[in-house]
Design brief:
Length: 150
């Protein structure tokens, strides 16, 4: 079943349950996918759907950090609950140990020896962890392992 079909079913369920918050988030996700389809001019494949979901998740995580910096707990709580709903549609997230293994493999494969080669390593790692790990977490692991690799 495609993500769009799943979202439609969940939207119906949320309407019947009068779950306004879930309904709102599911509608936003559905709209984001439909907008991407219109932009591309065809139905999205699984990887493209994952890209849209990842972008939506990143926007919410960025909003959460901004709201927390501004001490806007009311808005931060709303975004936290949105993140929980979006996570239902994301693939299972990698553990930090799994990320470290992927990064170490990418460092060995690219032959990177210093933090100056950060971009090369990130370019090799990100396609492997797409949608399965937060980019900021991957970024931190790559920096740490490159620092230790010197």
């Amino acid at each position: 079943m495609s993500l769009l079909s799943t979202l439609n079913e969940d939207m119906k369920t949320a309407m019947k349950a009068k779950d306004k918050e879930t309904l709102q988030v599911v509608r936003m996700l559905k709209a984001a996918i439909q907008n991407e389809q219109i932009k591309i001019g065809r139905d999205l494949n699984g990887e493209e759907e994952l890209t849209v979901l990842s972008r939506e998740m990143k926007q919410r995580r960025d909003s959460l950090s901004e709201f927390e910096k501004a001490e806007r707990d009311d808005l931060a709580e709303k975004v936290k609950s949105e993140i929980i709903i979006v996570e239902k549609y994301m693939p299972e997230q990698l553990s930090e140990e799994e990320i470290r293994q992927i990064v170490a493999g990418a460092i060995a494969k690219t032959g990177a020896t210093s933090p100056k080669e950060f971009g090369k390593v990130m370019g090799a790692v990100m396609p492997q962890v797409k949608g399965k790990a937060d980019g900021n977490q991957v970024n931190a692991v790559v920096k740490e392992l490159l620092q230790n690799h010197e």
